[in-house]
Amino acid sequence: MSKVLEVCVDGLESAVAALNGGADRLELCSSLIEGGLTPTPGMLIQIQNINSRNVPVFCLLRCRPGDFIYAQEEVEVMKEDARILRRHGASGFVFGALSENGDVNMKICREIIKACHPLPVTFHRAFDFCRRPTIEVEVIIDLGFQRILTSGKQRTAQMGVKLIKKLIEQVGNRIVIMPGGGSRSRKTRGRIRGGDWSK
């Protein structure tokens, strides 16, 4: 297995630092101070212009701060954002949607995955708000996600290592469990995800 370094960035400065620092993949968002929101097409285009190594750039789909329980109107916004960002060179997308009971909202996820097709999708840290993580991980696999970003339902991935290890053992090679959250770099001014173990 090889370790892939992903860095979450929200602007040109942090993207340049991450690329120069050897990032293998970027997760692009806006407004990290609010937990990350959907980036603009203009930001994606400018980052692609400086991306001489052709590092994959995954775009976050999150139309507002707060919880991950979305109204249909909000889902339509994220679907349209996915179509636009896909046309402007996104390598994949990162999103997550939950139901009020804390389960993965399969209907909404299917809708957004369809809008992202054929690009790969990652289920983001909405997973850490699932009430039954070992059950919902199977739902996420069945939906067709390639990765799950999680801190193991704790504030940091280091604190959640017990659940993360359990999930990795449960899923085998069916999906990548990507530990993330709580690790920051002053150099990149972004968030580092250092645990994507790609098969």
TrEMBL record:
Location of the region described as Disordered in the Swiss-Prot/TrEMBL record: 179-199
Pfam family for this entry, one: CutC
Entries under InterPro entries matching the protein: CutC-like (IPR005627), CutC-like_dom_sf (IPR036822)
Record SUPFAM superfamilies: CutC-like
GO molecular function: copper ion binding
HAMAP family: CutC
Similarity comment: family membership: Belongs to the CutC family.
PANTHER family the record matches: COPPER HOMEOSTASIS PROTEIN CUTC, COPPER HOMEOSTASIS PROTEIN CUTC HOMOLOG
UniProt protein name: Copper homeostasis protein cutC homolog
Taxonomic lineage: Eukaryota, Metazoa, Ecdysozoa, Arthropoda, Hexapoda
